[in-house]
Design goal:
EF_hand_dom; EF-hand-dom_pair; single chain; 548 residues; 3% strand; Recoverin, domain 1; 6 strands; EF_Hand_1_Ca_BS; 51% helix; two-stranded antiparallel ribbon; mainly alpha; flat; 28 helices; metal-binding
Length: 548
């Protein structure tokens, strides 16, 4: 039938005839009788007791029950041409008695009408308290007008009520922020373009900030993020860290060595992302900042010597930058950069696989070096195509190599060992790395354990939840992940572990309190060695400054 063409009367009569034939069937009558009795007796038993399986008394003139009252003859047409709206008007047509289909439809209509007459209570979701605050939980106690008034009084002390970068320290304190927020505040108000910030522009910016950002993490991201962004990229931290380099008293000796500013800043940025960016996305979100100690303090008593760390705030209170070992320590930067300089023979700030293999006297296996350069843990596709890694990648490598107990380092080496990227270390992958360890031990005239025996030891050490499969969760739960990794790709540390008893290793892993981390211990030792070498007349060619 062409689209849009309605049924013709002759065809409609045939449809009605077929319907009446169906209605006259005994099975149809029994079904309708059962339905009628259910409707009439809603509180009674379902069905008609034992009669449900037997045919009941036949309907009187079933065919006539569906016809209009005026049609007495069985042979007369069932509907006139004017009655073309049967599918839509069957429930309201005048009939000689209650038709068999009528009660079902009317009953169903009554149920719907009853529900409409009794409005439902408000949706349950409306009564659930808000629990997701991407920009921080709003605080009712914040007096915005009082804060703005304090800021305006501070600007009134400046010439023409305009603040330069040197004035932003007082503005930051008026805003209730740590001192070293002055750089982000200056940039957030557009000061880097004009060299100063007017009181009106700053107040408008800060009022909007207080209304939309309700905690330090949201405010910090809003101040530093690029236009249109919602998370921080590595380059977003440069203005903040450049101000730290320029004004922190613990870095005053670095002012004259401007060529090392960018390298110190790069080191700090990589350490921030190494610790804070737990998603490995290359962008730091508000949620990741809240979970870190970069802006937020730790739970009291959980930090070093029970101190509640808040690194950016401590920049103001701690004159010795080297005490801030998590991110800002110059001594740590000095160690990392010197180690990279030793390997980077052409000093182009890039190293290849052969350069990296020389680290720690070729302690790391060739297969692991290849995995590092495969892109499993490095960024920068252009550098990877050239078969090199940058100084930024080396920062991640060195910290992970010297401290295999942190969550990020465990993830780093797990990614390298997971050859097929399925999230599980199989026995094949473990054997792949252990084969080279065995060859290297043989070349040193040291008898290596057969792989089966070594595997049993490692499974006892890690105790994986699934037999024959080691997951990232298993290694994070295990307190001796460093022993596991060194067994498969670091020959020097593997031999060192073998010489020490397992009991002493467990004691070290379970010790709590003021113990230095493996990385802090390594950095302190190496820094002392480097300073001693410099004092003996072996300065670095480029004149790298030392804070010692």
């Amino acid at each position: 039938m062409p689209p849009g063409k309605v049924l013709q009367p002759v065809l409609k009569m045939k449809v009605d005839e077929l319907f009446l034939c169906w209605l006259s069937e005994s099975s149809t009558q029994a079904m309708l009788q059962d339905c009628l009795q259910r409707i009439k007796m809603p509180g009674g038993p379902v069905g008609v007791g034992g009669d449900a399986g037997q045919p009941g008394p036949p309907f009187a003139a079933p065919a006539l029950a569906c016809r209009p009252r005026g049609l007495d003859s069985p042979g007369a047409p069932s509907l006139s041409p004017a009655s073309t709206a049967l599918p839509l008007g069957a429930a309201s047509s005048a009939r000689s008695g209650p038709p068999v289909r009528g009660p079902r439809r009317s009953a169903g209509t009554r149920v719907v009408q009853t529900r409409k007459e009794q409005p439902l209570p408000p949706a349950a979701s409306l009564s659930i308290p808000t629990f997701y605050f991407p920009r921080g939980r709003p605080q009712d106690a914040v007096n915005v007008d009082a804060i703005i008034a304090k800021i305006e009084r501070t600007f009134a002390q400046f010439p023409h009520e305009r603040a330069t970068m040197g004035d932003m320290g007082r503005v930051a304190k008026a805003c209730g922020c740590p001192l070293y927020w002055k750089g982000p505040l200056f940039c957030g108000a557009g000061g880097e373009r004009t060299g100063s910030v007017s009181v009106h522009k700053f107040v408008a910016m800060w009022r909007k900030m207080l209304q939309s950002c309700h905690d330090d993490a949201a405010k910090f991201v809003h101040l530093l993020v690029s236009p249109g962004g919602s998370s921080l990229a590595q380059e977003d931290f440069i203005p903040f860290l450049q101000d730290v380099v320029n004004t922190h008293p613990g870095l005053a000796f670095l002012k004259e060595a401007s060529e090392f500013h960018s390298r110190y800043i790069t080191t700090v940025i990589q350490r921030i992302f190494y610790t804070v960016n737990r998603s490995w996305s290359g962008r730091i979100t508000c949620a990741e900042l809240r979970r870190s100690t970069f802006l937020q303090p730790e739970v009291p008593g959980s930090g070093f010597l029970g101190v509640s760390w808040q690194n950016v705030a401590l920049l103001e209170d701690e004159v010795d930058i080297n005490q801030l070992t998590e991110f800002f320590s110059y001594e740590h930067f000095y160690v990392i950069y010197c180690k990279f300089w030793e390997l980077d023979t052409d000093h182009d700030l890039l190293i290849d696989a052969q350069d990296l293999a020389r680290h720690n006297d070729h302690a790391i296996s060739t297969k692991m070096i290849e995995r590092i350069f495969s892109g499993a843990v490095t960024r920068g596709k252009k550098v990877q195509k050239e078969g090199k890694i940058s100084y930024a990648d080396f920062v991640w490598f060195l910290i992970s190599e010297e401290d295999k107990k942190t969550p990020t380092s465990i993830e780093y080496w797990f990614r390298c060992m997971d050859l097929d990227g399925d999230g599980v270390l199989s026995m094949f992958e473990l054997e792949y790395f252990y084969e080279e360890q065995c060859r290297r031990l043989d070349s040193m005239a040291i008898e290596a354990l057969p792989f089966e025996d070594c595997l049993c030891q490692m499974l006892d050490l890690v105790k994986p939840q699934s037999e024959g499969r080691i997951t990232l969760h298993d290694l994070k739960r295990c307190k001796l992940a460093s022993v596991f990794f060194d067994t498969f790709f670091n020959i020097e540390k593997y031999l060192d572990h073998e010489q020490r008893e397992q009991i002493s290793l467990f004691r070290e892993s379970e010790s709590e309190g003021p113990e230095l981390s493996d990385w802090e211990r390594y950095a302190a030792e190496e820094y002392d060695i480097l300073v001693a070498e410099e004092a003996m007349g072996e300065p670095w060619e480029d004149g790298l400054a030392s804070s010692g």
